[in-house]
Amino acid sequence: MIWFAWAMALAVSAFDIEAHDAIGQTAASAMDQEAIKQIKRMMGGQDASDVAGWGHQVDDTYPDMARLHFQVHDDASGFCGDTRTAKCEDNICLLQSIKHFYGKVLSDEGRRIDFPQIDYAKVAKGIKFSDADFLKMLINLVGDLHQPLHVGYANDNSGRKVLVKFRGQTMSLYDVWDHAISEVVRTQESNFWLGGWTHVRAVNSEWDTDKKKWKEDGPFKSFERWLDEAVQFTCSKAYVHPTTGKKLAGPNAESGPVEIDEAAYQEWRHLWLRQILIAGERTAIVLNDILDNKGATRLATGSKVHTKADEEKAKEQAEWDKERIQRQRERRSRTSASFINPSAFLTNLAIGAITVPVFLLVANHGLNPQTYASLVRSILESDAAPKGGAKRFE
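User: That's the sequence. What structure does it adopt?
Assistant: Structure tokens below.
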């Protein structure tokens, strides 16, 4: 019951859908052509940005799946200390999930790899994943690894118990990093948001470093390094007021709610955007590694996970089909009615009664006025002649 309650609290979590989309766009800018080709094949024409927020849909349908998206650390081992212990029973946590889904895909490609096993029944009874679903989970999970409060601490419930004042509202520290910064940038800097900032060239040096270390250390050590960097970021940036330097969480935290003014927002905005870009280039590294391999052609397309979003989409499609059929019937009805329109028939008949005789006159007698004058005189003379039959013999 404790785990269920915790999962329900997490069910509305992770970067919002727009942030995941930005991560996916950054990833797409760094992916090789072969990887792009393979992901479009597997996703039915969609790319990384189109499916980046798919994990939200799964969590909405299977709330306990949210546990896979967090690496919650135990405060007993020391808050933001050198030693940390994560709550990861049965490998149900963020780092192990990333390793698991990565290993599942490589295994299906025919590559040999040892990876953590996860009993899906412990988070979602009856759920099954396809190869395409494994990839979608990876895209979502690597993104979540860079939302700092996905790797936070248990006592403050990953920042949910830490209250701050942001833009006139009191909200949790988690919500600030999850969606509030994103909403401010999108609504108040829409030209910037839509202006192509989600390109790997913005973090080119970090991308080069990550690619080099991936080759040197391998995937699992890279995932572990990314987690270490994420926790360091959380402890030094997300859990600390950006201008005063005071702690927002932990044993020496400032009592709240603490004001996040414009200067503090600007500091966090810069860091938040960088996290999106770093998450995108690292997602591309993972996808390139998987999809550039010749075994990628073995990976199956389609999805085995049926979500509430799928049901809503099916209902919407059914409504569109119903409206389309109704419009077709109305068009056929209007077309049929046009063939027996009595008003149109009488109008055409009247026009014909005038134009046909005139046409025949012109055809037979031409357009010479003298001809018509003679014709009129002959008609008048015939009307003036005596009427009656021949004389009867007596």
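Residues 1-13, 388-394 have pLDDT under 50 and may be disordered.
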